[in-house]
Amino acid sequence: MATPAQPEPQSQPSTEGNGEAKMSFFEHLSELRKRIISSLIAVGLGVVVGFFFAEKVIGFLVRPMVAALRDAHLGDKLVYTSPTGFVTVLIHGGFYLGFVIASPFVLYQLWLFIAPGLYRHERKAVLTFVVSASLLFLAGMAFAYWIMLPYVLKFLISFQGPFQPLISINEYFDLILVVLLGLGLIFELPVIVFFLTLFRMVTPKFLWKNARYAILIITIIAAIVTPSPDATTMLIFMAPMVLLYFAGIGVSYMVVRRRRVAAVAREGAQ
């Protein structure tokens, strides 16, 4: 007696390596739009909060400049040269402070956008990612404020010539923002390496093999930005960048190692 034909299995949606259904192009755009809107709302709320603390934060930021002027036996008062000068600084300070306040939430939204393309064990690192990125950014700003700025400002003030320096708060604020935000972003190097390793663009072997070239580039950058010609000051600026590079190699190794462990576990389950 002939057995009845078995029903054909229903086709399953195509999946990525993480076991989840692929998103269409328009679904990716919709998800990106959602994350951008959420980030903009967070930044807006952060700016509102930033305006309340802008004056105190600006007072804190001018301390290195005041200290450099006092050490040079000069007047320690900063000035503004237009009626709206200080108001402009307050507005800009509120905006930048709002971005800093909202940055952990923005990083979280970025993680939510890329997480569907990652393996389950990689998505569990969300808290570590957000906390590490935020702390590294703050560490970079702290390094710039307490270590780099005193050297830079002292060096710049030493070039007085026959003139009396009259420091504008607006120009000083522009300078300090470039220094603080620039070093804050440089300190995100391990996070950048983390992403590049997740997407298989770099490996710890590649980073280790090219470490000498990375140190050479770091040395050139340090020589350019170091305010004084002595080797000690240049080493002060080189040290954190070199340490961050090798910390990035360690991060890359951990990502690759966890990926291999997860691959072995999946093979054993089959």
In short:
The protein is mainly alpha-helical and 270 residues long.
Describe, in plain words, how this protein is organized in 3D:
The chain has ten helices and no strands. It has helices spanning 25-61, 63-71, 85-114, 120-123, 126-157, 169-186, 189-198, 204-209, 211-225, 231-269. The chain folds into two domains: 27-186, no CATH class; 188-270, no CATH class. The radius of gyration is 25 Å and the shape is flat. The protein has 270 residues and is mainly α.
Share of helical residues:
over 70%
What portion of the residues fall into strands of 2 or more residues? under 5%
Q: How far apart, in Å, are the first and last alpha carbons?
A: 36 Å
The overall pLDDT average reads: 83
Q: Provide the gyration radius in Å.
A: 25 Å
Q: How many structural domains in the coordinates?
A: 2
Q: Biggest β-sheet, characterized? A: none
Counted beta strands: 0
Helix and strand content put the structural class at mainly alpha
Q: H/E element string?
A: HHHHHHHHHH
The best one-word shape is flat
Give the uncertain stretches in residue-range form.
1-17
Count of DSSP-assigned helices: 10
Record the SSE blueprint.
Layout: H1 25-61, H2 63-71, H3 85-114, H4 120-123, H5 126-157, H6 169-186, H7 189-198, H8 204-209, H9 211-225, H10 231-269
Helix pairs in contact: 1-3, 2-5, 3-5, 5-6, 7-10, 9-10
